[in-house]
Amino acid sequence: MLDYVRRSRLHLVTGGHDAAEETPCAHCARGRHVGANARRCAQVRAYAYSSPNLSLCERLFLNAFWDGAVRRSCPTWIAPNLMTALGLLAIAVAYALIWTLSPNLAFEAPRWTYAACAALAFAYQTADGMDGKQARRTKSGSPLGEVVDHACDALSMCIYPLIVMDIFGVGHRSRDARAICTTMMMTGRAMFVVDTVSSTFTGVLPVSEFLDSQEIQLICQTLMLCVAFSGSNAFLYAPVTVPFVGATTLGRAGAVFCITTGAISRVGTFVNTVLKANKKEAPPHWPAYRKPLSIAARCALVEAFHGLCLYKAKNFAYAHATSSILFGESEARIMSIRVSDPDFPVTNWLALFIMALTTVVPEGDAFVSGMLMGAALFMLLHRGSCLAAQITGCLGMHPNIFIIRPRDA
């Protein structure tokens, strides 16, 4: 009976993939490991990392800064995944600060909060830029490292817009404020999903040479520092005149410029990806029956559902945290197609059910909201641990992803 319950739970969580069942790996002579089979191990071993192009700020100073920081301050025993995790912890602290000190997202936190958020966000960006260089330096790169890095990027993608919404004093109590807040957050996530599908199909993360994620992060950090030292967000409402648009505010003009530039770049990249798929130019790692457009459409529907749930949720802070965690799990699923399991399902129906429950939790009920957030965190850790077991087992690596040394024979 207990075995039946366990397998039913795994079927709901993983869509039929019983990652608790050990099977011999046809490509690894070192023994048995969780969730392995010949098809998955062939996919893991076929993985080859392709470095993306450098964005504007990376070419100017960020790349040199990261190279120097790795050489001067990172011992060779520090695992790249550990650096990524520490960076995520930094941005998570900033997230907690904003919700604790400005729960209404109405620019009500003390001035030092925004300076701290800028420093923590830069710490995350630095760790995110250094981990890949540390992996190449220690020759410890693996498919798992790319998935961990991308999942952490997905979580940070949910945090940056929240801080910016607070700086603008948008709020989330009224219906109009909630609609604006949710729309801005879902727009950023939609562009991130397009990037993920494109990079999963082509094997290379699309990077705009002018304005990309690194530049957007620096703009957000500069914005945090400006409001920290000025003590007011009034400069965001300074009147400016934009050609072909007319009179508007500085903050609105900047936000529209960044969103428009990013959206055009992402849509163009995704169109090229779809055209390659239609011309039968799919890479060897991509299953012929899986179409990038179909995957992107399903992910878009999932994000639209998340946006609706956030709009309806009475405990917005908890609902946003739950949605962010599930977004990270969803991105890891998409990446799994390329680095681990070409047949892995991208839609997690249990995750959608958990998100739907956030809309019926009474306002102020922290216990039930916390339980739902804990369930989402369990799903993220479950997906990550299963993926880690598959990749480390196939490549004969140490099962602890935070250790750089071969697994003992």
Automatic annotation (TrEMBL):
Name of the featured protein: CDP-alcohol phosphatidyltransferase
GO biological process: phospholipid biosynthetic process
Protein localization: Membrane
InterPro entries (UniProt xref): CDP-OH_P_trans (IPR000462), CDP-OH_PTrfase_TM_dom (IPR043130), CDP_ALCOHOL_P_TRANSF_CS (IPR048254), CHOPT (IPR014472)
Organism annotation: Ostreococcus lucimarinus (strain CCE9901)
Pfam families given in the database record: CDP-OH_P_transf
Gene Ontology molecular function: phosphotransferase activity, for other substituted phosphate groups
Protein family: Belongs to the CDP-alcohol phosphatidyltransferase class-I family.
Keywords, ordered alphabetically: Membrane, Transferase, Transmembrane, Transmembrane helix
Cellular component, GO annotation: membrane
Transmembrane segments: 81-100
